[in-house]
Amino acid sequence: MTSVLRLFRDIASESYNDEGYASNTSLEQIDVEAIVCNIYRRFEHKAAIDPSLPKLIRKAHCNVLKDWLMHLPGNYSCLDASRPWLIYWILHSLWLLKKLPDAETLSKVVNFLKQCQHKDGGYGGGPMQHSHLGTTYAAVNALSIIGTDEAYDSIDRSSLQTFLWTLRDVDGSFALHNGGEQDIRGAYCAASVAKITNIYTEALFDKTAEWVISCQTYEGGFAGCPGMEAHGGYAFCGLACLALLDRTQLCDIDALLRWSVNRQMRLEGGFQGRTNKLVDGCYSFWQGGIFPIISAILAKDNKELIETVLFNQGALQEYIIVCCQSPEGGLIDKPGKPRDIYHTCYTLSGLSVAQHGTGTGESLVIGASETELNRVHPLHNIAPHMVYNAVHYFIRHPPPVKDDN
Amino acid sequence: MSDCGDSDAGWIFYKDRPDWNDIKPVPEDDGITPVVVIAHSEKFEDVYDYFRAILQKDEKSQRALELTKDAVELNSANYTVWQYRRELLKELGTDLRSELDYVESVIKISPKNYQVWHHRRVLVEWLQDPSQELDLTAEALLHDPKNYHAWQHRQWAIKSFRLYDKEIEFVDSLLSDDVRNNSAWNQRYFVHNNHTGWSDMNVQREICYTLEKIKFVKNNESAWNYLRGILLHDKRGINGNGVVTAFCEELYKNRCRSPFLLAFIIDVCEEAIKKNETNGFHNVERAKELCTALATKYDKIREKYWMYLRDRFEMYVCVNGENSQ
Ligand SMILES: [Zn+2]
């Protein structure tokens, strides 16, 4: 299916009306719109004389990602406790771009992740760091992307299950690490990891779905914990967790859908993370990724919906390709922001969702056909076949000690 | 990404400190095939080599406590360092009041970091003293009125220690600064939901408050979402409150076409249909018309969604054989 770009004239006509009452929110929104509008205007001129536009500068992205996989500049010291995350973001981005590194490099990654695995189960942010659920999720996803027996066998699943038990609270919620904070990311990461590695048990997730649903807010999205504001990242975690636990019937889907569709910005085309906040490339996935899950739920009553996602796929792709690419490679939050690995991963993941929707219908690609990315599994954000392969490997190879709680 | 700054003159490396010469530094062991290798500064390497040594030995000492400060300064997101620091505080019986001041100073530098706020929370729990938390979070929210971490900490303190008394005033002042601050609207809901309760009188008072705000900024999604939120607690439902429906029809008549107004009227229609309470204003045809208007004119970015809702209303007609005016 081909899609037409929005006309600059139509984009510009969507600009913010502050109704004569300026406030911080409206002033910041108007600033961003001015910058984005300018980019769309210049883009329309360029595209008129260059039929290859809009295009994804694949080579630049692949090159910088491959560099990052080996070496990072000193300003990444702040992510020294997130190294498995860096690996997952990089490998997943490269896979989306259809350029996974060779087997030798991937084997190096497996070795390194072994160094991050803690003897008491799970993975830390680096060698000799305590285990953390976020970095454990990232490591398991990265190893599933690598997908070799060596990668699968490097995970100590018995101790991983023990680790998950130590983080679980009686109310079904999960802390991110021992002695650490507890929020909806914990529940999602635990469910994702347990499902993929086949260490999931009913007892381990008893009441988790009920706890997660207590985070759905009056706006319809999910918050990090009960009472807080609905937020894109947490909404993805909440819905994906319920889907992994097969408990989406607890969710007010109409309210979630209303909230989610309203996060798409009328002028920019990208998503904001919360009501009245600014557009940001990473929410392309956190918000965009919610839609295929919603479609699957709604399709239980109306089969046609499995082929569509209810957001504007074209406008999101425009925002990502026109406004979020750094010319030197890597993707960004919004124009004017520096590139980073996190935004590269989630902006590309969102682009993939925008192109493939639920994955069952035809794809819709803005720009040249080489812009098309690989497809993702909406619950784990790695390739669907990678999830399948890992799950089936782990079913064939049960962990030495089975949970008997 | 914040600058992990480490450019202070007069800094002495741990490896050059006589009082640390009994410790053998432990370099990071990335294995034989390192990847994602960060080009840390020499200072970073040095501090963390010694941190790993202390951690490995499980040394609980004053100098270890000082070392964790240096480690935090280089990377305040290192949860292992914070966790170890908490173990040290307990073991050494350190004055937790000075620790509160310390973490406050780190929060001021890194206000959007999970670890610093969590550390603060644990300290307040240990001390059972929330007396500074409202001021601390108010200060953080002054710089960034939508800082999620600050709001989360504030909610935790309020809920755990019943500090609801002046919270509505605080919310009011934030909303008068910026009526579009959704975090402040959410906090308003939090106070009513956990403290004031949803008595009929309170619901009506909140409705009036919200309609007043919508009157002067009609395009403010936060206020409309809040309105829908409080109507969840109105026994008459979203379509049964005459004040609200009259307000909306008045706006519509005065040519307001804010997508949030139109969307709200659609919700009123939907509930009226479900409850068999349709009337000249709120019925299937009106809902379908509004969906079309939104899809084609007032909210084009959400065309697919509005057409989906329109189709759903179509199905109501089929299923219920509904007669609309
Ligand atoms: Zn972002």
What is the topology?
The complex is a heterodimer of chains A (about 400) and B (about 325).
Chain A: H1 8-12, H2 24-49, H3 58-70, E1 71-72, H4 83-96, H5 103-116, H6 133-146, H7 149-153, H8 157-167, H9 184-196, H10 208-213, H11 232-244, H12 253-261, H13 283-286, H14 290-298, H15 313-323, H16 341-356, H17 384-396
Helix pairs in contact in A: 3-4, 4-6, 4-16, 6-9, 9-11, 15-16
Chain B: E1 37-38, H1 42-57, H2 62-74, H3 79-92, H4 96-109, H5 114-127, H6 133-143, H7 148-161, H8 167-177, H9 182-196, H10 200-216, H11 221-231, H12 242-253, H13 259-274, H14 284-298, H15 303-320
Helix pairs in contact in B: 1-2, 2-3, 4-5, 5-7, 6-7, 7-9, 8-9, 9-11, 10-11, 12-13, 13-14, 14-15
Zinc ion binds near residues 280, 333 and 343 of chain A.
Describe the structure.
Chain B: Belongs to the protein prenyltransferase subunit alpha family. Chain B: This is Protein farnesyltransferase/geranylgeranyltransferase type-1 subunit alpha. The complex is a heterodimer of chains A (405) and B (325). Chain A is mainly α. Helices cover 48% and strands 0% of the residues of chain A. In chain A, helix 4 (83-96) packs parallel to helix 16 (341-356). Chain A is globular and about 65 Å long. Chain A starts with 7 loop residues before the first helix and ends in a 9-residue tail after the last helix. With 325 residues, chain B is an all-alpha fold. In chain B, 65% of the residues lie in helices and 1% in strands. Mean pLDDT of chain B is 95; it is low at 1-5. Classes of the chains: A mainly alpha (405), B mainly alpha (325). Chains A and B meet through helix 2, helix 3, strand 1, helix 4 and helix 5 of A and strand 1, helix 1, helix 3, helix 5 and helix 7 of B. The complex binds zinc ion (ZN). Zinc ion (ZN) binds at residues 280, 282, 333, 343 of chain A.
